[in-house]
Amino acid sequence: MKTRATSFLLAALAVVSLVLPALAAEPAEMPEEFPESPVESAEIVEEVESAICLDGEPVDSVEYEIRNGVCYVTVRSFVSMLDPEAVVEEEDGIVRVSATTVTQIIPVVEAAEGGEAAVDAGNGEAAVSAEDSEPAEIAEDSEPAEIAEDGGAAEAAEAGEPAENAGDGAPVEGAEIGEPVRESLAANVVTADLDLLAAVGGAYFLANGRYLYVDGGLIDLNGSAAAPVRQLARVFNLTVGFDSLTGQVLLNHQEGVEPYLTSGDAAYDNDTLYWLSRIIYCESGNQPLVGKIAVGNVVMNRVNDSRFPDTLYDVLFQTNQFTPAATGSIYRDPNWDSVVAAKLVMDGAQVTDALFFNAAGARTYAARTRTYIATIGDHAFYK
Fold this sequence. Notes:
It is built from ten helices and 19 strands. It is an alpha+beta fold and about 375 residues long. Among the domains are: about 45-100 and about 190-260, no CATH class; about 270-380, Arc Repressor Mutant, subunit A. A hairpin with a 6-residue loop joins strand 8 and strand 9. Helix 5 crosses helix 9. The N and C termini lie far apart (about 65 Å). Mean pLDDT is about 80; it is low at about 1-50, about 125-135, about 135-140, about 145-160 and about 160-175.
């Protein structure tokens, strides 16, 4: 009897062991395609219990999902976590974010009668200088009056003794002070702005004129556009870490940095953009975006490799390397897609670590002597 029961139990366990892997192997539903994405393998959704932590505190309001080891979060929930006052508009898979953060308020203090106000730019404190008037010296034995209990300025006990400022911005008079001062209602307000645009299926999203590449494309998560947490963290200048013991994504603010990503106008070097966009256009102007990025990667990989010249210009004009530089076609104005590809590369988009490329199938020096990596579009790439 015991033998029969044991056999039955083993048979049941065998069935379960066959069914469970089959269920676990079913891929999650994904968008039909990611435009310009080099990733073609099926994405598998991993159900995890990890949480997003911001400055050491778990945040349950962020919608996220782990796909192939990448943590995707919805743009809407990520922005709301960091800036509840931000304006987030989303429709048909397209999300736009507008936000403004006050970074500094510098009060302006002016003289009550003809005085010229001055602001100390170093510490944000206002200083006052009266026109051609100097304050009288306070006698050594004179003492300021005490502050009244109701917060108002106390009267001077004796003529010539100035009263202390009540702290409410009202003018304070002293018999021997040349000019009373008052705090103006005006102030110098320094702000930082954010303008973000993203769309489901896009190969990149825009933040303050910066082009941030998403390998595999932005995805639809619960009806909302979602991007890798590392890329969204860049928008808010956050550091990103991962605790393998708790399974938590760790986000932290950085002290002394701006609240949002620096604008593209300030971040993109014009000289680099000029040459990089032109070589991308000449070598791969008719290729998909990922092919353009790959060509840009080859050029920048050479700049960073000790076996090649140190500058972009010298890499491009090195003898017998890039035909467009030799023929002069490199000076042609690039199309917009090539400019975008150059900006993506300058902002960290990396799809290959190759140092050489040529037309796929061509019997070139690189094809004969270098290690083949991959074919992207119409080009073969080598190390």
